[in-house]
Design a protein that fits this description.
The chain has 9 helices and 8 strands. The chain has about 200 residues and is α+β, with helices and mostly antiparallel strands. It folds into 2 domains: about 45 residues, no CATH class; about 110 residues, no CATH class. Strands 1-2-3-4 form a 4-stranded antiparallel beta sheet. A two-stranded antiparallel sheet has the order 5-6. Strands 7-8 form a two-stranded antiparallel sheet. β2 and β3 form a beta hairpin. α2 crosses α6. The longest helix has 14 residues. It is globular, with a radius of gyration of 19 Å.
Length: about 200
């Protein structure tokens, strides 16, 4: 099969591994191609992920290879399960005020598919490569925890992702002689003003 070189090319009817493209799709603000997996599930996927073979199924194939290892006892107690719980806690505001700024005020959420389904989350992201890895929102550091926007990353990779984020609406400021993101400077300042007020003034 010829590999399409343009995201605008009609992929309808083309097969990519276990996925058949059945048309264009839209889910909330997410655009892409609606694909039917061999297992019967449908997913909306980005064309580049199909073309480059990043995604080969709806997640069922990865689930087959990981479910036995991690769900014999429900997955509880594993690094992957703790990461799933922490991810949800961050977005629900159960952590300290600084993280509420980073997640609640920025509108970052966990997709409905993963909110109450650890197995679905694990099927997509897979086992952690090492104890040094944690869940990172990538490539869109301003996006939600959702398929095609999460990865296992080291602390160094996450720091690089945060330093050069794809989120022009979060300004970088000089504070006490150090360059940092505005939310970080706000937390360090101990200001009594609410963050939205400071953000608007900047």
């Amino acid at each position: 099969m010829d590999r399409p070189h343009s995201n605008k090319k009609d992929l309808t009817g083309q097969r990519f591994s276990h996925l058949m493209v059945i048309g264009r799709g839209r889910e909330s603000s997410k655009y892409g191609w609606l694909c039917l997996c061999d297992c019967g599930q449908k997913r909306i996927l980005k064309p580049i992920h199909l073309i480059e073979g990043v995604v080969k199924s709806c997640g069922c194939r990865r689930a087959d290879s990981t479910r036995a290892q991690f769900t014999t006892h429900g997955g509880t107690g594993t690094k992957e399960y703790r990461a799933w719980q922490s991810m949800k806690n961050r977005c629900s505001g159960k952590y300290h005020k600084g993280n509420k700024i980073y997640y609640l005020e920025r509108g970052i959420k966990v997709c409905l598919e993963w909110e109450n389904d650890f197995e679905s989350f694990l099927a997509h992201i897979g086992p952690a490569p090492s104890s040094r890895h944690s869940v990172d929102r990538y490539p869109n550091n301003d996006g939600n925890y959702e398929p095609e926007n999460v990865r296992w990353a080291t602390r160094e990779q996450q720091m690089e992702n945060a330093r050069f984020p794809r989120r022009p609406n979060i300004p970088v400021v000089m504070f006490r002689g150090k360059e940092m993101l505005l939310p970080e400077a706000y937390r360090s300042s101990g200001s009594t003003l609410k963050y939205p007020v400071v953000r608007d003034r900047v």
